[in-house]
Amino acid sequence: MTTVITTPPLQFDGRALIDGKRIDAISGARFDCISPVDGRVLTQIARCAEADINAAVTCARAAFQDQRWSGLAPAQRKRIMIRFADLLLAHGDELAVTETLDMGKPVKYARAVDVSSAANCMRWYGEAVDKIYDEIAPTASTALALITREPMGVVGIIVPWNYPMIMASWKIAPALAVGNSVVLKPSEKSPLTALRMADLALEAGIPPGVFNVVTGFGPEAGSPLALHMDVDCIAFTGSTRVGKQIHVMAGQSNLKRAWTELGGKSPNIVFADCPDLGKAVEAAVGSIFFNQGESCNAPSRLYVEASIKEQFLEKALALVPDYAPGNPLDQATVMGAIVDQMQMNSVLRYIDIGKSEGAKLLAGGEQALRETGGCYVQPTIFDGVHNDMTIAREEIFGPVLSVLSFTDAADVVCQANQSVYGLQAAVWTRDLNKALGVARALRAGTVHVNQYDEDDITVPFGGFKQSGVGRDKSLHAFDKYTETKTTWIRIDSPV
Question: Is the pLDDT of residue 10 over 90?
Fold first, then answer.
C-alpha cells in the first residue's frame, strides 16, 4: 500500500523579496508557475526585470555598507544561520511538497535529500565560520604581515531548477556566513522554495536587505544581475552555454568574480573485475534515473568492458521497471516528472536523435502518463552507442543512459576524456592500482571508486574543462566569496 501526500492547498506567494518585504515587480508583470506533476497553475510569479534588480542590489549594498550583517561577530552570524537551518527542517514537509509540485521530483527525495541537504549546508557553514583563522606571513622581524579574509560585498547568485534548495544553499550559505549580502535569482521554472527560504531567513534573524530574491527569466533578470556594476561576484549553476555568457557579462561590466558550475556528461566505467557487479548495475541505473536524470553529474555515459557487457545489460534491464514514472506525491514513487513541457520535448528529441544515428533502443524512449497532463518520460537505455554520437556528447538532462564498450584501461580513458565536460566519473574494479591509475588519468573534478555519487558537504564539488570554474561545498567555497587582503606593518625595534 502506498501513501499519497494530500496536504491542504498551500498558499504560494510568488512575489519577490527585496529589503525584507514581499513585493510585486515594479512593472506589475507576472507569469504562471505551472506544475509538471499535472499541468495545474500553482500561482503567479513576479516577472522581475532590470529595475527590480537595481532595487535589490541597492538594498543589498546598503545592508553591506552599514554592516548590519557583515559587522556581526562570526559567532553571532553562526547562531542565526543555525537557527535558519533549524527552520528549514521545521518546515521540511511544506518545503518538500512545494518542491515536488514546482519541479516534479518525488516527494520522498525532496524531503529526505533536498530539505535535509539544504539545512545541513546552512548549519555546516554557520558552524565553520568562527573556526577559520587568518594568517601571519613569515616575514623578517622588521615587519608584521597580516593576511585576512574580507567579504566581497554584494554577491549575485543564479541557480537552476533541478535542485532548487540544494543549489541555492551551496552558494547562499558560504556567502552569507562570511558577511556578504546576497541577491538570488532562482530559475523561473522552480522559484517557490527559494522565496520561502528567504522568508525563513528573515524569521531566523538575517536582517532585511541581506538576503534578497528576485524572480524572473534569464534575459530579463539574470543578465542585469550579471552585468550590474555594483555586484562584486556572480555565482551561477546551469548550462555551459549560459555559463559562458555569464563570464562574458562579468568581463563586460566591472570584471566581477564569476564562478560557474556547469554541465556534465559523466563516464561510469565498469571493468570485468568489478568487485560487485550487482552493486555496479544498481548504481548505474539508479544514478541516471535519480531526479529523472536531471542532474549535472548524472553518469549518462556507461562504459562496460566488452567481456561482461551482455551480462551487465541483462541485469540492468531487469531493474528498469522499478523506475517507471509515477505520481511524485506518492511516497512509493522513485521517478517523477520532467520539470516542464519544454524540457520533456528536449529529452524526447534527443531520444529520436539517438535512434536516427543508429543507437539501439533497449528500453523506454517514450512519453509516459500522458493522461495526467504532466511531463513524464520513460526510463530509457541505448546500447551500441559510440563517442561521436550526439547522445554521447551532449548533455540530455533526462532519464537517458548511453551504453558503450571498451577493451582495456587505455581504451576507456581515451574514450571517457573525449568530452568537453569534466564534472564527475566512476571506476569499478577490484584492482587498486588500476583504480588509482584510471582515476588520475580521468579529467574530472570527482572520481568515484566502486560506488557512484556518495557525497558529503566536507568535499569540494565542481569540474574540469567546460564543467565550470570554482568549487562549491567544503571550506574551499569560502575562497569564492572573500577577498584576501595583506596588511604590512613596519616594525622599528626599540631594542
Answer: no
Q: Which of 33, 59, 121, 296 is catalytic?
A: 296
Secondary structure class of 116 (helix, strand, coil): helix
CA 473 – CA 493 distance, rounded (Å): 44
C-alpha cell of 402?
Answer: 548511453
Q: Phi and psi (nearest 5°) for 72?
A: -70, 150
Query: pLDDT by residue (tens digit) across 150-199?
Result: 999 999 999 999 999 999 999 999 999 999 999 999 999 999 999 999 99
Give the single-character DSSP code of 468.
E
First to last CA, the chain: 84
Q: Which residue has the higher pLDDT, 2 or 21?
A: 21
- C-alpha–C-alpha distance, residues 123 and 145, integer Å: 32
* DSSP per position, 63-103: HHHTTTTTTS-HHHHHHHHHHHHHHHHHTHHHHHHHHHHHH
- Which listed residue (99, 188, 220, 261) is catalytic? 261
Rg of the chain over all Cα atoms, to the nearest angstrom: 24
Query: Cα dist. 231→211, 245, 262, 368, 429 in Å?
Result: 14, 16, 21, 44, 47
**What's the CA angle centered on 201, arms 189 and 24, to 5 degrees?**
50
Q: Report the b/e string of 229-238 with b at 16+ CB within 10 A.
A: eebbbbbbbb
C-alpha cell at 108: 520522498
Residue 35 corresponds to which cell in the numbers above?
Answer: 506544475
**E strand intervals along 328-384:** 360-363, 367-368, 376-377, 380-383
Q: How confident is the model at residue 434 (pLDDT cuts 50, 70, 90)?
A: very high
Catalytic, 50? Answer no
261 labelled catalytic: yes
Strand ranges, E, within 21-66: 21-23, 30-34, 41-46
pLDDT tens, position by position, 121-143: 999 999 999 999 999 999 999 99
Residue 149 CA to residue 204 CA, distance in Å, equals 25
If one counts every other C-beta atom within 10 angstroms of the C-beta of residue 248, the result is: 13
- Compute the average pLDDT of residues 79-93: 98
Q: Which amino acid is at 288?
A: I
What is the pLDDT at residue 5?
58
Q: pTM for the full model?
A: 0.96
Burial class (CB in 10 A: 0-12, 13-18, 19+), 10: middle
